[in-house]
Amino acid sequence: MTGEPGGDMRALVEQMAKALVDEPDQVAVNVVEKEGDNAVLELRVAPNDLGKVIGKQGRTARSMRTILGAAGMKLQKRFTLEILE
After folding, report:
1. CA–CA separation, 51 and 35 (whole Å)
2. Phi, psi (degrees; rounded to nearest 5) at 21
3. More confident: 18 or 85
């Protein structure tokens, strides 16, 4: 991975999303740095893959956010995942 905390988390989210979707080449993750220890990761996927990333009743998205939160604890930084349409 890249060595930079935001980059590591970006790569983590990207790998998880690519494993879930039918069009992995359409997956894009942008890191938007916010104040101090907070960073927002914006995930974009193909429109027909949106449901696969969100999951039934949002379970897949919630699980991805949980993993991101646990990994962020190690880096002492808070990451938020936003799934963009």
Report:
1. 31
2. -95, 165
3. 18
Cα–Cα distance measured from residue 65 to residue 81, given in angstroms and rounded to the nearest whole number: 6
Percent of the chain clearing pLDDT 90 (strictly above): 76
CATH classification for the domain delimited by 5-84, as one of 3.20.20.100, 2.60.20.10, 3.30.300.20, 2.40.33.20: 3.30.300.20
pTM assigned to the model: 0.87
Give the model's pLDDT for residue 2. 46
The residue whose two tokens read 């905390």 is 5
Contacts of 35 (CB under 8 A, 6+ apart): none
For strands 38-44 and 78-84, give the pairing: parallel
Q: What is the DSSP string of 34-61?
A: -STTEEEEEEE--GGGHHHHH-GGGHHH
CA distances from 50 to 7, 33, 55 (A): 23, 24, 9
